[in-house]
Amino acid sequence: MTVTDAARDTVAAALESDRVESHLNPPPSYDLADHPLPTGREEVWRFTPLKRLRGLLDGEASDAHLTWDTTIPAGANLTEISADEARGLELPPNERPAALAASLSGTATLLDVPADTRVEEPIVLRLSGATVEDLVHGRMIYRFGAHSEATVVLVHEGSARYNAISTFLVGDGAKVTVLSLQDWADDAVHLGRDSIRVGRDASVKHASISFGGDVVRLHANVEYAGPGGEAELLGLYYADAGQHLEHRLFADHNAPKTKSNVNYKGALQGTGAHTVWIGNVLIRKVAEGIETYEENRNLVLTDGCQADSVPNLEIETGEIEGAGHASATARFDDEQLFYLKSRGVSETEARRLVLHGFFVDLIRKVGVPSLEERLTDTVEAELAKTVTSGLNQR
């Protein structure tokens, strides 16, 4: 047995002897009976507008698919695998949407980056839907070998009712960046779960950016396969009138000397705009010497919006390096606006500068230069709406 195998066995044994389930992260199961149709009274569903999911949770089978347009650089391989093969690789579902995707998707897509491989250019997967009448179940597995390096960009566009389960297996010492962009049409519905397993001394940067869609509800779950793993979870969202954008994070520190850092920022404008951010960190007894911090900031730009932000820490050991969280929701800062106007900056430009400054640092942290311009342009377009709305309300 190798040292790595021994370390994994130690972590697995510790988990079995010290099984703690988070109240916001139900235990995994492929059995749909373990994931009944929600009523909206459940803690994990109370923020989600179930009636606007258009039957996505009913369990209806479908042969519809999204259109794929891919850029696969040298060193990466994209293949289709059977449902049985997928079940042997993926992290099992722990909620109804993910369980339905695993049950009804049929096959799965596997993206493979071999050990010791550095993929120089971003791997880009563009998924596009044609109509909201299409019900699509997606199942994807991303496997990164030990000491590999890669960046994956996943772009969602068009219109559909889309339900996906995704697993990211990051090998020991690997360095991986994942960017998921939700740029859907206004009527799309998207439920998704990204489950990430971080290997020993590996690092993962996962960024979820949501602009489009009628209802978008996404999970990013992290666990560790050994000590020394690091995860950075970033997010940016911008909700317009009537939109519901919901992001849920769970960092399961199930190995010692691991790290997690969560930083999500969102803005809201227009009547009925609603954002939800739920951050949860579980520090198990075995997870000594870990570091974790989660932060969510929301900027309410107009009347009629609602931002829910709920950070959580569940701590089973005091032998840690640090753990904390921060959450804030505020209106547009009139003092900043006054400061800029007093120095000759027009009100239109002043509003743009303040809002741009709120987002720009997070866009740069994403670390995908090829998409930075697109993200900046999209934010600028949203800011233009806000500036006009703000001036009209004065």
UniProtKB/TrEMBL annotation:
Region feature (Disordered): 15-36
Name the UniProt record assigns to this protein: Fe-S cluster assembly protein SufD
InterPro entries assigned: Fe-S_cluster_assembly_SufBD, SUF_FeS_clus_asmbl_SufBD_core, SUF_FeS_clus_asmbl_SufBD_sf, SUF_FeS_clus_asmbl_SufD
Gene name linked to the record: sufD
SUF system FeS cluster assembly SufBD core domain mapped to chain residues: 134-358
A single BP term in Gene Ontology: iron-sulfur cluster assembly
Source species: Nocardioides bruguierae
Coiled coil: none
Family the UniProt entry places it in: Belongs to the iron-sulfur cluster assembly SufBD family.
Pfam family, one: SUFBD_core
SUPFAM superfamilies for the chain: Stabilizer of iron transporter SufD
